[in-house]
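Protocol step 4 of 5: obtain the predicted structure for the target chain.
Materials: sequence only (see below). No template structures provided, no constraints applied. The aim of this step is simply to have a reference model before the mutagenesis design in step 5. Sequence pasted as it appears in the construct record:
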Amino acid sequence: MVLFAHTLLCFALLGTAAGALLSARWLRRHTTHPDIVRRTAFASAAILVPAATLCTVWHHSALTGPTSMVVQVFGWASIILLLVVVRGTMISPPDDEVTARPRRVLAVGAHPDDLELGCGATLARWIDAGYEVHGLVMSNGERGGTGVRPSEAISAGSFLGAKSVTVLNFPDTRLSDTSSDMVVAIEELVSRLQPDIILTHSSNDSHQDHKAVHLATLRAARFHTTLLCYESPSATTRFRPTVFVDVGGYVDVKVLAIATHRDQSDKPYMTGERIRATASYRGGQAKVRHAEGYEPVRVLASMTTVLP
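Step 4 output (structure tokens):
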């Protein structure tokens, strides 16, 4: 019986440590202190697995009776503690934000990293509240990077929990040349998804592609009730948000999602410092700790009940 108990404990501890290692991506997305969780799991396994193994080998010795009990107690207690830590550090929106019917969101961007930069924390919060989020990227960003950018966009969307991310192949830096085709592409997705909320670039942006996508989205969503414009790093001083989403607890998730775009990691606006500073500034305007700001094209009054 003692032999079975120690063997079971060894497998449980090793499984916990392996789970913490293999689920590192999940922990970074869903907990506020992923490193603490992983270190606790590894430390417990490193200390208690050898102790349990020794007790198993020497289980006939009279000295191992009390030691065996101590190892068992501490071993299972460490596993329970780890589960409590994971549950206690999980990122989640308030219960009253969880929707009975999944709200559907379509976020439209010009380049593979635009969605994470402009509204990544909002999307993460809405996903955790039960929203169904879809991303549409109009170009693969070939002029500003390498061929890995589309896959990085899909990976970032997967990290956030998006239902889908579609990367199109309109010409980077020359999106205005294909405005009519972009309108058709956006219209098709709007018609198919029937989103409750559409997010896109602002007109107050110095990047020509961002302006082109803004105009194309306005045309494609001309019959849609709720359309919000997010803030890009290239937004001008005329960007004046009046709708804010409280993203407390989700700024680090946004930083990690942006870090997925390794091809653009040398850009100054990709740093965690810049992202946190912007979220803090918009939070000050919204009277919360961290926020993302939006310029509304229009917002249906009933939708204000589902904008966290």
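Step 4 remarks: Residues 38 and 146 are 33 Å apart (CA to CA). Confidence is low (pLDDT under 50) at residues 60-64.
Proceed to step 5.
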